[in-house]
Amino acid sequence: MPAILEVHDLVKNYGDFTAVNGVSFDIQQGEIFSLLGPNGAGKTTTISILSTLYQATSGDATIAGYSLKKEPTAVRRAIGVVPQEIALYEDLTARENLDFWGQMYGLGGKQLSARVDEILEQIGLTEKARQRVRTYSGGMKRRVNIGVGLLHKPQLLFMDEPTVGIDPQSRRAILDTVQELNRQGMTVLYTTHYMEEAAELSNRVGIIDHGQLIALGTQAELTRQVGQTETLLLHIAENDDPQALAAALTGLEGVLQAQASDHVIRVITPSAEDVLASVVSAANERGIKIRSIDIREPNLEAVFLHLTGRALRD
Amino acid sequence: MKKIFAIIWKDAVVRFTSPWELMFFIVLPLVFTFLLAGGTGNGQADPRIRLLVVDEAGSPVSAQILSELGKSTAVWPEVLTRPEGQAQFDERRAAALLIVPAGLDWSALQAGRAEVELLQQPNNLNALVAERAISTALRQVSAASAAASQAVQLRAEQAPFASQAEKQAYFDESLAAARRLQAETPERVTVRTANTPDRVEYDPRANSSAGQLVTWVFIPLFGISGMFAYERQQGTLRRLLSSPTSKATFLLGTISGQVLFALLQMLLLILFGKLALHLEWGRDLPGLALILFSAALAAAALGTAMGTFIKTESQAGGLSIMFGMVMALLGGCWYPLELFPAFVRTIVHILPTTWAMQGLLDLVLRGRGLVDILPEAAVLLGFALVFFAIGVWRFRFE
Amino acid sequence: MKKLFFIGLKDLKIIFRDRAALIFMLLAPFLLTLGLGFVTGHFSGGSASGLSDIPVVLVNLDQAQLGDALVDLFQSEDLSTLLEPSEADSPEAAYRFVDEDQAAAAIIIPAGFSASVIPGEGALAAQNYSPDPLKIEVYANPSSPTSAGVIKSIVDEFISRVEEGRIQGTLRVLSISGVENMPPEQVQALARALFENGEFDDETASSAAIVLKKENQGPAAVEFDPLAYMAPGMALMFLMYTVSYGGRSILAERAQGTLPRLMISPTSATQILGGKVFGIFLTGVAQMGILILASALFFGVRWGDPLGMLVLILASVFGATGWGLLLTALSRSKAQVSNLGTAIMLIFGILGGTFIDLSQMPPFVRLISRITPNAWGLDGFTTLALGGGLPQLAGPITALLGMGALLFGISAVIFRRSDAMKS
User: To probe the interface with B, which of C82, C95, C175, C215 has the most B CB atoms within 10 Å?
Assistant: First the structure.
């Protein structure tokens, strides 16, 4: 399959601060590619550069064969963008919004109205199309927000953290939409800081941290980097000190890494079963009460922890 | 081009969603124009200032003062009783009140005991005008008596009067002669207002309406800055700029839409002025259209430039009203520029309002035509170009 | 009571941190007052209006005594600050100056003007003398109506003096006994001599003149500073913005959830509403205080009685707060309050007499203007600037307090009905 997006050594500096530091990757036609990373890792900056909103300090990308630097207008025609925040005119109806944005993408006439009908059908708002967006629920607004990005049948769709701050039901609906779009042949660049979303949706994942792409590949490829390990999640009481326990656990035999955040300690180990007893007794010795224990198969969370020594959601 | 229409349509729907917009679009400008045009719905109303007069003397002298006042071009006297006059004055319903006290007659005048009383509202230009008009009238009345007195004196030096009666008779005779001479005095001054070759009566109230027009068109056009803030807050600006629609197309669409609304607004205001207030808007319609169009473009471009640094809609609202009012005031839209000190008159040429007003006055008051306002239009278009360029250059989506 | 105070203080803090609001509350009225200061000549010598250095073009085709006298008058020391005269050779050149807006007016003194006023050779046939009507032309610039008016009045005054002289002279001639029998040449010479002597003989004239006794409202000794009218006018206008901003904050608290939070705290609805109103009031007082102080500091406005000033500010803000509250009670959303607030601010501004002379308005406009706190407040500030004290302010203050109380009552009823505090 041909690559629809190729990013070469993208750099973005703001004064002394480097927001994106030499990022390179590509996206194949028909795949869902996720950029996974914590807040502030450089995901939105990267996607903003790719959607021609910012100029890269150095480096370039080709999208659908067009250079980002030399042919930004052609790039804009090729991509569809679903911004993180809802970007709609609340005083216009859904149909008026879609009409307007279609025109901004150069659509018009019968072609536009047919396309708007299709999109309304797809996002399930045909009946409410004549209501002002202001009157919509959050989930409905999200759907229109995505619909606008699809109007001109882009070759590549950018979705920048579309599930931030919404209820589980709406989130589910969005994930389903993305998968449905992909089945219809849409290529998607999806950014998120939810490990589960990246895991569920994507063919390939790029992990980004401090502006650098620190890992890239399919889920299987990435988890293999961590080796044959399992993750032990210890939930401890609120008034106990997780840092002290983590430090103690790091020295135990069979523990590769132990890391504390809030009231959870993540222990990476080749075999959870083998270390379980010694972990529990280490906690007991310190008078720390373990409320529950989870054992996780290798996943992207573990990969991130392995690579950075930090949890994804710090 | 289609994109520009789409943007204009979108802006129209967004702007007029709230009925309040109509309030600012047309209701307030109409109220202001109406009030500042003198609050009269009648173009034939007496433009002279109403002067309250209380005549307690009821003598030939007071009658003559009244008749002199009646001839004035600046005031028209309205005779009232003292309590009425005092009450109206206290309620600020008139700028000045003249009281002619009892006992004012020729003999009092001869004896140098003649006195009238004038009450003026403070800080009132009309009160000052009234004072001047009264002085002129009093001077006319006194002059005859003074001349007669002098004649009596002169005659007495040559041949003393035999009796008081004879003296009085001589005075009366001289007074009559003096007043006859006064009455026979021809007009010695003629006033011609510049450049109204076809003798169209240009209404000074058109001046204040023109000023209101500029004020009320500039304020919403400065409000373009608020539209950008709104689009930024909604995130639609960001989205727009990642679509294959260029910055310049977007700005052009936004500006041309607002200029279109402004032209519509001006048309309504002009029609209101013409039909309801019978104001004269000059004969040169192409000239009027050109100057209004250039002014609207300049204001819109300025609003665009403001939009590059204003962050929130409420800031934009406050700043556009403030800039609009300050520029209107300094540009001579509210008070004629002649009232400003010379250096201010020079400095204010950096404001587009000054040029817009100058162009409008050329058309409305001086009866000039299209050719004469070309320089003003050119300056306004220059403003538009410069600020539009700044807008495009500094324009950011966040 | 303490809580009420805290809520008010919190609102005062919030508004003074909002830059957009400060622009409107303080900067806008200050700048407009500054601009009006220019108009009223406050910064250019302190005359009643800003008129100075009026450019005027003189064309003296007469070249005889009266024409010269008029030119001298225009060039005299007394008028040197008011006028900036220049001379042109031909009427055409002078017209051009006016047409190009270089001069406020042109004065054309026609050739033979003096001769037409002062009886010329053979023209005098005693009483039957009828002068040749030659006229001085004032060519006025329509875009400088006031300046042109000033110039015309100077010319008028000159002519009226000339007329006085002429009439006096003629009467004197007639009073000489035996004048009927004199040869015309002699009468003529006599008249001319008398005219020239008596031309500006004001002493006798003024002794018999009617004296105009002027009385301003209030003590005549106080020189009225127009800015004492303009500065509070602007402050009062933007006070209306402040009170609507305060009303907005009530609806904003509801929208952002702090109002429900306050409602579930052990604070009563009355305390909350009272606190909000107190906050509006406090902000208004701070704004008025700052602006009035600024007018005294920067523009040198003398405000007289400080106690009267304080009470007047408090009363004005109270009346305006009533309007702010009514506005809030009638509005459903923040946007509505701010739109309505801005509209009311401008309408009250103009109706209150900040921009226009209310005395020239039809009676119904004057009547309507009385519903604005602006009109009453301005009355009060004018009285104060003219040297009045608290006792003279009783009228406006009573009206403002009454207005405030009435509006508070109406708003309370509407609030209770609409349950605006709940939800």
Answer: C175
Q: Please give the DSSP secondary-structure letter assigned to residue A93.
A: B
pLDDT in tens, B355-370: 999 888 888 777 778 8
Of the candidate ranges A215-219, B261-265, C119-123, C155-159, the one whose mean pLDDT is the lowest? C119-123
Using CA atoms, how far residue C172 sits from B197, C179, C188, C190, C202, in Å, is 45, 10, 12, 9, 15
Asked if residue A82 lies in contact with residue A144, where contact means CB atoms within 8 angstroms, the answer is: no
Beta bridge partners of A81: A158
Residue B138 in tokens: 């009093």
Which residues of chain B lie closer than 8 angstroms to A89, CB-CB?
10, 13-14, 234, 236
Check residue B181 and give its pLDDT: 79
Report whether C142 contacts C98 (CB < 8 A). no
Q: Is there a contact between B241 and A53 if contact means CB atoms under 8 Å apart?
A: yes
User: Are residues B189 and C155 in contact, defined by beta-carbon separation less than 8 angstroms?
Assistant: yes
Q: Do B10 and A96 touch (CB under 8 A)?
A: yes
- Our separate counts of H helices and E strands in chain A read 11, 14
CA distance B146 to B134: 18
Q: How far is CA A241 from CA A269, A293, B100, B196, in A?
A: 21, 17, 98, 93
Higher pLDDT, A230 or B267: B267
Work out the angle at residue A51's Cα, subtended by the Cα atoms of residues A50 and A55, and round it to the nearest 5 degrees.
Answer: 65
Question: Does the pLDDT of residue C49 top 70, yes or no?
Answer: no
Q: Which residues pair with A261 in a beta bridge?
A: A264
C168: nearest CB among B24, B147, B342? B147
Q: Given a cut of 60, is residue B300 above it in pLDDT?
A: yes
Instruction: Report pTM.
Output: 0.75
DSSP string, B63-108: HHHHHHHHT-SSEEEEEE-HHHHHHHHHTT-SSEEEEE-TT-SHHH
Per-residue pLDDT, C221:
36
